[in-house]
Amino acid sequence: METVDIQAVESKLSDVTVTAIPMVPKSGQNQQPGQSKYAQLLGVIEEMGREVRPTYAGSRSSAERLKRGIVHARILVRECLIETERSARQ
């Protein structure tokens, strides 16, 4: 498996300003506070998948939810990389 240099990834992302937007889970989702970052990322990707088709159909609200999902997924990916790097050191 390829090793990831976390500093290189962070330096590439440092020029991007990301404002965290709280995601409101839909009623059918079970988001436990102790859920791993990876499990949260999978849930966000699943949500984003539901928004793609309505976005293509021209739904502005779906497009906004998709944009928020992308921002949230990017944050979670960064946190997953940090978590992975930390566990690889141990």
For this entry, give a set of tags.
mainly alpha; 90 residues
Describe the overall structure.
The protein has 90 residues and is mainly alpha-helical. Helix content is 64%, strand content 0%. It has helices at 6-13, 37-56, 60-89. α2 (37-56) runs antiparallel to α3 (60-89). The two termini are 17 Å apart.
SS-based class: mainly alpha
Mean pLDDT comes to 79
Helix content: 55-70%
Q: Count all strands and give the number.
A: 0
In short:
This protein is an all-alpha fold and 90 residues long. Helix content is 64%, strand content 0%.
Summarize the topology.
Layout: H1 6-13, H2 37-56, H3 60-89
